[in-house]
Amino acid sequence: MSTQYRTREETVENWPVRIVSYCVGPIWYAAVENIDPGAKIARSDGTSREEAERRALDKARERLARTRTFRT
Description:
Elements lengths: L5 E7 L2 E10 L2 E8 L5 E7 L2 H17 L7
Antiparallel strand pairs: 1-2, 2-3, 3-4
């Protein structure tokens, strides 16, 4: 496993998500996914880990804020 691969969990718009980031060559990639069932919500890239994660999280926040939930 590469030392540049990182995964962490966070809550975004009341949804538990996993943030995955890694580097391939000079480009950093990040993905935000729903922890259960593991669907990708947003992806992005950037020149640094922070930029790629920030951009992916911004997209995820926008998409999750529009997601309707139903009370049971």
